[in-house]
Automatic annotation (TrEMBL):
It comes from the Bacteria. Keywords: Signal. Residues 1-24 form the signal peptide. This is Phosphate ABC transporter substrate-binding protein. Gene3D superfamilies: Periplasmic binding protein-like II.
Length: 143
């Protein structure tokens, strides 16, 4: 076996690791004082897509979109891009059937709303998970 073979394998592995985008999972979170401890993927879809605005304990759900993470979240949750999501909400709002989730511009704003409201739920990158929130569901992004 040539001496440079292990070095070539190591270099190839390093290039593959650098060129592969790393995406963390997205956690749907709620105030740690909430009586709700988990939701299903279907419940998350229904709440964030305006089909049903109740948490599993039958309290009113207040979904919050986080602007910087919104496109990644909806792609992972319902496999739709922002043009499709915006079109979906335009139809629902125009018909008067539902209104989209409240939107925040920063993680800090999301944390502020969720920590002051037991029924508010939002989403965060797992790598930025605030300590004072409970994870209801973790969703993975498709490559």
């Amino acid at each position: 076996m040539p001496r440079f073979m292990p070095l070539t394998c190591l270099a190839t592995a390093a290039v593959l690791m650098i060129s592969t985008p790393v995406r963390a999972d997205i956690a749907i979170v709620i105030n740690e004082a909430s009586p709700v401890h988990q939701i299903s993927h279907g419940e998350a879809v229904n709440i964030f897509m305006g089909r049903y605005r109740r948490l599993p304990d039958n309290s009113v759900a207040l979904p919050i979109d986080q602007g910087p993470l919104k496109a990644r979240f909806y792609k992972a949750l319902v496999k739709k891009d922002m043009a499709e999501i915006n079109s979906y909400w335009a139809r629902l709002v125009f018909s008067g059937r539902a209104s989209p989730p409240q939107q925040t511009d920063t993680l800090k704003d999301l944390v502020d709303i969720v920590t002051h409201n037991n029924n508010a739920l939002g989403y965060v990158d797992v790598a930025e998970m605030p300590s004072n929130m409970r994870v209801l569901l973790t969703i993975s992004e498709s490559p």
